[in-house]
Amino acid sequence: MAGGAFEDTEAAKRAHLYEHKITGYFIFSCIVAASGGALFGYDLGVSGGVTSMDDFLKRFFPKVYRRKQEHLKETDYCKYDSQILTLFTSSLYFAGLVSTFAASHVTRKKGRKASILVGSISFFLGAVLNACAMNIAMLIIGRILLGVGIGFGNQAVPLYLSEMSPAKIRGAVNQLFQLSTCLGILVANFINYETDKLHPWGWRLSLGLATVPATVMFLGGLALPETPNSLVEQGKFDEARKVLEKVRGTSKIDAEFADLVDASKAAQAIKHPFRNLLERRNRPQLIIGALGIPAFQQLTGMNSILFYAPVIFQSLGFGANASLYSSLITSGALVLASLISMAFVDRWGRRKFFLEAGCEMICYMVSAILVFLP
């Protein structure tokens, strides 16, 4: 029973029978796991800032730097036109996409904890390689390792949080991943603002500090318990029961544990899960929920705006420091919105927040178009 799938099961009708306490063990597990979101958030925030730093461009992309300085008769965006620079930024996302398939297998067969550890190690190595980069090849290999780390982390962490959280606060706990992502972006922008003043090596510090959340995630991950759901899937029922009792802070977990076992048996009874997804009765959920919503969320371009925020602000006429400072406002708004969502998502439901967010984005985008029309 992972994530939102819980609400669609018969077990949801018995959720009122589940007992739990908010224990220190549960809080520790969630904070460590949620640090996986900080990996993605920090990279999203720091990379866009680094690519706007003159010292970084001088070393690896001198043509782009010269375009910035010479004020050629072209748009500001054209000054950042470089296939190698594009490869540097996009290699992480491509590696993350490919690694997600391997992460899915590891998460299912070896457990959520295994994917979290693999992701933290890969991200740490990528951060070290980028910080020590002497040429573009090292930068790109480092970005690929970062992408693998993000692929494993983003695959396992939301699932881990959902499975560890009590049903009544599952929405808020799952939002910890989004909150840590937004905090990672905010911290990265603060760091970029300061390291841009450290010539000529400030960009190395920005990239190298990505090892901090990776180290937290790895060391904490060693102490993390595996989720009861994963242990049940692996047939380790006694261990699963012990973990569930420890996480819930009570021995009265019979109803929840029975539902975990029933859900696992029902899942294992499906011999061809991917073929089952394509059946007519499951197509609406597949097309709208699994494919449409995530795809259109990305197609809004919000992640691209967050990544390139310093470059965009600089292109609009802000100075280098001013552009980094302005992006702090954007990341600060992200953190605030995540906190609001955490406070009300279990009370109001996911659907209301989804509709509200969609309407809000439409209004802002239309306003932006009207503002920038000639």
Automatic annotation (TrEMBL):
Q: InterPro entries from the entry? A: MFS_dom, MFS_STP/MST-like_plant, MFS_sugar_transport-like, MFS_trans_sf, STP/PLT_plant, Sugar/inositol_transpt, Sugar_transporter_CS
Transmembrane spans: 22-42, 84-104, 116-138, 144-161, 173-191, 203-224, 286-313, 325-346, 353-373
Specify the protein's topology with respect to the membrane.
Multi-pass membrane protein
Major facilitator superfamily (MFS) profile domain: from which residue to which, for each copy? 29-374
Entry GO MF terms:
monosaccharide transmembrane transporter activity; symporter activity
Q: Does the keyword Transport apply?
A: yes
Which stretches are annotated as coiled coil? none
Give the record's family classification: Belongs to the major facilitator superfamily. Sugar transporter (TC 2.A.1.1) family.
What is the name of this protein?
Answer: Major facilitator superfamily (MFS) profile domain-containing protein
